[in-house]
Design a protein that fits this description.
- The radius of gyration is 26 Å and the shape is globular.
- α2 runs antiparallel to α3 and α9 packs parallel to α10.
- It has a 14-stranded parallel β-sheet with strand order 1-2-3-4-5-6-7-8-9-10-11-12-13-14.
- It is built from 17 helices and 14 strands.
- It is α/β, with parallel strands linked by helices.
- β3, α9 and β4 form a beta-alpha-beta unit.
- It comes from Glomus cerebriforme.
Length: about 475
């Protein structure tokens, strides 16, 4: 059997980074596969369990181990031999919160958790930070929040080299100014920044934002109705008006949105707010964002205002996600002003079938559509019939979102009829079918329907079938 070179295997294993079962199987093939696949297994600390931290502690320096021992911390390891790899060097995605949580679990597992364990946790985490800052390859993604950050590791030896190429940062606004200031001295190439605004707004956050050279994506979550975000808006509009291509605003947002007009290169805009009387969007309805491709809107926006916005910006949209209170007039506007949509989150009541047909006739490039089912919305059969009779050749993904406590009305014969008709489409294309529910009796819970789905998966008609709950709905 011919051997693939290491660089080819590297690229192949990147596709399996979330498939840990396959990667663990690759460990057993030969030494080369083991050496390469182990890097993918250790790239993201989200997947680390207590045994991973056992291994990391085994990788600590002699001085660190002695320090832990002097403080009464003895972590048993499953293997007395030296570690096979420099495991810490493989980590590129690090969450401070998860480090603390997993170290606490490790102490519990080793029956060392007592009233002084917080100090023990901090000491272990401190030595692990030292290990990471010395050994890891340049970190790509870092997550931390104010309550998590008890140790300022930016001052550790090696921190500059490990953090200078950071591309994604998830943080809260209440982290100490000192930490943000240190980070801003050498971390100047962030592409994505996600900020959760808390009660306290660190002054150092402004320093970090101001030094970024090419910020592409910004996401802001505001928990309270205060206007802390106003402090950074001038920095954003002055320093990043040309570079920003994605902007997401969430939570209890209570500031003017007029600043969004400054970002003429914006390609993706996501707005989602907690309160029900949001009216500031009217200041954006006449704004033209010539590069806008993806648009997600909050609930409770006046349809008339939204219609004006779509008249100005709809022709370039390829993805559109709307709230659950849009009416028939807006669906008609979507059909008329958004002809190039590829993905559409559609809310149609069972009285709006003609409008649904109009959307399909006008949006001929649709690849994916998400439809609400049950109650006042379409039944599964109505949705399937519309897909078969009115969708165009590019469509390949159907997402059914079940209204709360809805019950499936689809008969197995009707489901099989849909798949049989799908096989006759030209060109032939395997379908992705996703069911989103909240523990309701959807077609994904019917045993006979699941047998039919399995049958057509084996025939290649179904490329992917999945049932997910509302909280894990990443198709929104």
């Amino acid at each position: 059997m011919s051997k693939l070179p290491a660089d080819c295997l590297d690229e192949i294993f990147e596709y399996f980074e979330e498939d840990k079962i396959t990667l663990r199987s690759c460990l057993l093939v030969n030494r080369l596969w083991c050496k390469i696949s182990v890097k993918s297994l250790w790239i993201d600390d989200w997947y680390y369990c207590t045994s991973n931290y056992n291994t990391l502690i085994a990788c600590l320096s002699k001085e660190s181990k002695e320090l832990l021992f002097k403080n009464g911390i003895v972590i048993s390891t499953t293997n007395s031999n030296p570690p096979l790899f420099n495991y810490a060097s493989f980590c590129k995605i690090l969450s401070i919160n998860r480090v603390y949580i997993t170290v606490e679990k490790l102490l519990l597992k080793n029956q060392q958790y007592n009233v002084s364990s917080q100090n023990q946790i901090n000491l272990i985490v401190q030595e692990l930070y030292k290990l990471f800052m010395i050994q890891i390859s340049p970190l790509k993604e870092l997550t931390f929040h104010g309550d998590d950050l008890k140790i300022n590791f930016t001052s550790y030896p090696g921190a500059k080299n490990r953090l200078k190429n950071l591309s994604e940062l998830y943080c809260s606004s209440n982290v100490s100014s000192k930490f943000f200031y240190h980070l801003s001295q050498f971390c100047k190439n962030l592409k994505s920044l996600y900020i959760s605004f808390e009660r306290f707004n660190s002054k150092g956050l402004s320093d970090l934002i101001s030094v970024q050279k090419n910020l592409k994506c910004l996401s802001i979550l505001q928990h309270r109705g205060d206007n802390e975000v106003n402090n950074i808006i001038p920095l954003l509009t002055t320093n990043h008006s040309n570079s920003l291509i994605k902007l997401s605003l969430y939570g209890n947002y209570n500031v003017s949105l007029s600043f969004i007009a400054n970002f003429k290169n914006l390609q993706q805009l996501e707005l989602s707010f907690d309160h029900n009387d949001f009216e500031d969007f009217e200041k954006l309805q006449y704004v033209i964002l010539p590069n806008l491709k993806i648009f997600k809107i909050p609930y409770h926006i006046s349809n008339n205002i939204l219609i004006t916005f779509l008249e100005n910006n709809g022709k370039n949209l390829i993805e559109f996600y709307a709230g659950d209170d849009i009416d028939n007039s807006l669906n008609s506007i979507i059909a008329n002003f958004c002809p190039n949509l590829k993905k559409f989150y559609a809310i149609f009541k069972n009285s709006q079938l003609d409008t649904f047909k109009l959307v399909f006739n006008s949006c001929q490039f649709l690849e994916s559509i998400k439809i609400w089912c049950g109650g006042d919305y379409l039944s599964e059969k109505e949705a399937f019939d519309l897909i078969i009779n009115h969708s165009h050749k590019y469509l390949y993904e159907l997402i059914l979102y079940y209204q709360y406590q809805a019950q499936t009305e689809l008969l197995p014969d009707e489901l099989e009829s849909f798949f049989m008709k799908w096989t006759n489409r030209i060109p032939q294309k395997s379908i992705i079918l996703i069911i989103v529910n909240d523990e309701v009796n959807s077609l994904g819970t019917n045993e006979k329907n699941l047998e039919i789905i399995e049958k057509y998966k084996k025939l290649g008609v179904i490329k992917k079938f999945d049932v997910i709950d509302c909280d894990n709905d990443h198709y929104n």
